[in-house]
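REQUEST ID: PR-0412
SUBMITTED BY: lab tech R.K.
PRIORITY: routine
TASK: structure prediction, single protein chain
INPUT:
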Amino acid sequence: MKAPKNLEGIFVAAAFLSTFAAYATAEVPVVEIAAPAAYVSVVDQAPVQTVEVKAKRLTAAEKAAL
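STATUS: complete
OUTPUT:
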């Protein structure tokens, strides 16, 4: 009679163990990513783009008019 009472705990423990086992036995693929030298040299020498905003701030009256 204790098994039906504790069925939720047994289910949670089984789910945890199966998930852990799946992660423990999973094979991680080896991926090698190499950027072409042409792209690296262009990016290293590119200037940084900047944006300048020249404007006055709105007054409270101008904000209220919007």
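NOTES: Residues 2-65 form one domain.
REVIEWED BY: pending
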